[in-house]
Specification:
It is built from 8 helices and 7 strands. It is of the alpha/beta class.
Length: about 260
């Protein structure tokens, strides 16, 4: 909370840090927690509502810090029911979420069921944060989503594709081996183009460049300006993976 108010003071005094200097980890896999705190310090937390698609166990989550320390409400969605049960036990015992616990939905997401799933759990219209990390059809799920209008979107990109404009074709029953096979997902450039179509601008990424942050146009445009996808792909984690594209370049790709 002290950091939240520090950023607000920095904003009032026009002495904001650079976005790439704000990352830290509380519950998130990398430093997304810090960057999300920075974003919402500048644009306000609104109604404090999130949707986490591909939430894993709901603890190692991009939304957990917001739920536990800032009293956000939201929906965790994952295809693995056992992982969701870990989250349900955690939030049941966490004092800050006793009064109003998050919702949980076990579902294998497709572009045909995602809108109805959110609607059935009471999520429609403007929300504050959408996280998409489903290791596969992330691009297609974001493209299909229209029942909610998030102010901020964070989505996983495939850094192996580098700065190319590439999307792996949609597979409704995708069950790829994402640990050993890079043929899934979409490049950062493809996601940036999709974001622009939906009214969002790219404002940053995590250090490794594989989680991109988008913000709705009209919000904090001076403090959180649009950046190029090239600036998100500077870390060796990303650049060293570019050569892995040679193993899959013969496969089918789409470009929009």
């Amino acid at each position: 909370m002290k950091l939240f108010h520090y950023y607000k003071d920095c904003q009032r005094n026009s002495v904001l840090p650079q976005f790439n200097e704000t990352g830290f980890k509380v519950f998130s896999q990398f430093e997304e927690d810090g960057k999300l705190l920075y974003i919402f310090s500048l644009i306000g937390m609104g109604t404090k509502t999130f949707v986490d698609l591909g939430s894993n166990d709901c603890v190692n989550s991009n939304c957990a810090n917001l739920a536990v320390h800032f009293n956000w409400k939201g929906l965790f969605v994952d295809g693995d029911k056992k992982l969701l049960e870990i989250g349900q036990r955690f939030y049941k015992k966490t004092p800050d979420t006793w009064s109003y616990k998050p919702q949980f939905a076990a579902c294998f997401l497709t572009k045909d069921n995602v809108n109805q799933l959110l609607k059935s759990h009471g999520f429609e219209g403007e929300i504050d944060f959408l996280s998409i990390d489903i290791d596969g059809n992330d691009y297609w799920i974001w493209e299909a989503l229209d029942v909610i209008q998030p102010r901020v979107v964070m989505i996983e990109s495939q850094v192996v594709f580098g700065v190319q404009n590439l999307v792996v074709p949609y597979q409704a029953d995708f069950k790829g081996d994402v640990t050993n096979n890079y043929y899934y997902g979409a490049s950062g450039l493809a996601l940036q183009k999709l974001g622009k179509k939906k009214g969002y601008r790219l404002i940053g990424a995590n250090e490794y460049g594989n989680n991109l942050f988008f913000i709705k146009n009209g919000l904090a445009e001076k403090d959180l300006p649009e950046i190029s996808i090239e600036t998100t792909l500077q870390h060796p984690f990303a650049t060293e993976k570019f050569e892995c594209f040679e193993m899959i370049k013969h496969k089918d790709f789409l470009a929009f």
